[in-house]
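Entry 14. Ran structure prediction on the chain below.
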Amino acid sequence: MKALKTLPLLIAGSLASPWVSASDDAFGRLFHTPAERQRLDQPRVEAHPAPVVTETIETHPVRLDGIVQRNGGVTAVWVDGKAVERNRAVASADGRSATVSLPDGRQMLLLVGESVQPDGAR
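Output, structure tokens:
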């Protein structure tokens, strides 16, 4: 008896389902064509141009941490906590200072433990 009461509901639901799924694609859209959407978005895009991004280069002081001289070997120079190649820093003969290349290409003589700002201020 109960099955007979629910049978019309099942039939009505199965008949209505093709129309519901067919209309799901456009449901919720105000403008259906991409051309219409682009035409309406264009004034909004032109009114708010993209912000200009300026690149800032972070500068930090250059510090001569140390010089290691080996007997008859290569001299290692430590700048900013890292051993650097010979083309970036050259140690003096006494081992107390080195000529260090700054990020802008200038070279400066620094004592061990001394630091310098990229603009040359000590």
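The chain has a mean pLDDT of 77. Will compare against last week's run tomorrow.
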